[in-house]
Write a structure and sequence with these properties.
flat; 4 helices
């Protein structure tokens, strides 16, 4: 794995932290608040996600990652960010289904990245 791919993955991780909070953070903090406030706050958070995501995708694609590889990499990152977010921030209980879903995504990684 090249340094550019690792940098791409790191940027995708950072951008996904923002996106996870944009998509789900309001369920904890604004659950009973006005929907419009939750939407506007989510858009504001998502703005920063896009500031990181777009350069990450350009870097990854520019260094040889195919579009499908970028997408599967993003799905791996999504699970790596979402599971700790769900457990520690949202207080969800551990479910073995998280592990099984992760293994399924790892199967997708194999097929997309194999030569």
């Amino acid at each position: 794995m090249t340094a550019a791919v690792l940098k791409t993955a790191g940027l995708l991780c950072l951008s996904n932290v923002f996106m996870t909070f944009a998509w789900y953070g309001h369920l904890k903090n604004q659950k009973n608040g006005p929907l419009l406030v939750a939407i506007l706050a989510s858009w504001g958070i998502a703005f920063f996600e896009y500031l990181i995501m777009v350069p990450a995708n350009r870097l990854g694609h520019g260094t040889g990652l195919e579009l499908g590889q970028l997408k599967i990499l993003q799905e791996v990152v999504t699970l790596l960010v979402f599971v700790p977010f769900a457990l520690f921030y949202m207080g969800e209980k551990w479910r073995w289904d998280y592990l099984w879903a992760g293994l399924c995504v790892m199967g997708a990684v194999y097929f997309v990245f194999r030569k």
